[in-house]
Amino acid sequence: MSSVMDPTLERQFKGHRDAVSSLDISPNRKQIASGSVDACVMIWSTRPQMRAYRFVGHKDAVTCVQFSPSGHLVASASRDKTVRLWVPSVKGESTVFRAHTGTVRSVSFSSDGQTLLTSSDDKSIKVWTVHRQKFLFSLNQHINWVRCARFSPDGRLIVSASDDKTVKLWDKTSRECIHSFCEHGGYVNHADFHPSGTCIAAACTDNTVKVWDIRTHKLLQHYPVHSATVNSLSFHPSGNYLITASSDSTLKILDLLEGRLLYTLHGHQGPASCVSFSRTGDSFASGGADEQVMLWRTNFDSVDYSEVLEQKGARDEKASVHRSCSQPSDTQESGAVGVSSQNSSTAPVSPGDGHPDSVPAALASTLQHIVGQLDVLTQTVAILEQRLTLTEDKLKECMEMQRRSVSEN
């Protein structure tokens, strides 16, 4: 029987000169990216004695950072209305594009790494290609700042959170708003999909976290566990836990299966602004107004979460084969969740079943490496193109100045 342990603080990273606004752990867990009001992006190494990289380029506060699925790119959004794509290496090269007419509040990759999603104070959500940052389309039904937007795990849906006190669910193909969730009593700071893709959770200035079933649009769980604004949240990859960060300076871990508060963590001096689980769930990182990034070990029990996720994938693969051999009725749905409660208590949420494709491990690893290298090559080409454009513009300017000088003489 495994022994239960509390989460433990592993490391603290200091280097930002203002509040940490966002962070993300790389897929291989070797790096943490963080953005700050100091307008810098920092790349921290989780390995001892390794130096951090400070990326300077944004002209105002960085509001959001995220690694690409391959880990070879980092996207950052800023109050300067731009998005940058960085190669997280010592050179810190980046491409930049003006994404919105107001502060860009969030940026995130689709699960295949090919598409970017941004949201802004201009009340819009925009979708872009990662390659050449080509604009595809926008979603425009919010009537106030859009704080956050995220793709569903399968990339077919989008969830957005806004200062208009709503959480909206969108169909990426039809570009229509499927449903608006209006139960929050304040501005909605953050929203994201459950790993199963069947539920969403949102964090709000009314000090609460709410979880909905996106198939029935019913409120499943309501957590009034914080004493101040909830700024950020992150699902554990197993789907069994949710972690939150609040201006009451605490992090709280919620057990979604039992519908209860599991842990309260005190680490930051002042508001905790952001939190994120690693892709394997064995660790999580948090950032706050105290300018610190903290790396924590999950330690819920002695289970190796990477093995659990692999076993879950194997089970899902078998279930997928079984389902493909039978014709389910229209009322059957995969990824069961708990029923909503009629009172203030919470209802359990089960993690749900995924549908991963069956790919040999060696081939998957090789493909992941190739995709990663293509990311880097694509980004390098984009950087060179931007530099060439700048050089051409300067050359034209010099020629024009020379022509004017000749004509004046």
TrEMBL record:
| PROSITE patterns hit by this protein | WD_REPEATS_1 (PS00678), WD_REPEATS_2 (PS50082), WD_REPEATS_REGION (PS50294)
Q: Look up the coiled coil feature and give its residue ranges.
A: 374-401
Q: Where is this region: Disordered?
A: 311-360
Show me the WD repeat boundaries. 13-54, 55-86, 97-138, 139-180, 181-222, 223-264, 265-296
Entry superkingdom? Eukaryota
Q: Where is the composition biased (Polar residues)?
A: 323-348
One GO cellular component from the entry?
ciliary basal body
Q: Where is the composition biased (Basic and acidic residues)?
A: 311-320
Keywords of the record, alphabetical order, are: Coiled coil, Repeat, WD repeat
| Biological processes, Gene Ontology terms | cilium assembly; microtubule-based process; multicellular organismal-level homeostasis
As for what it does, the entry says: May play an important role in centriole assembly and/or stability and ciliogenesis.
Protein family (similarity comment): Belongs to the WD repeat POC1 family.
Please identify the protein, giving its name as recorded: POC1 centriolar protein homolog A
Naturally occurring in which organism (per UniProt):
Carassius auratus (Goldfish)
* Lineage per the UniProt record: Eukaryota, Metazoa, Chordata, Craniata, Vertebrata
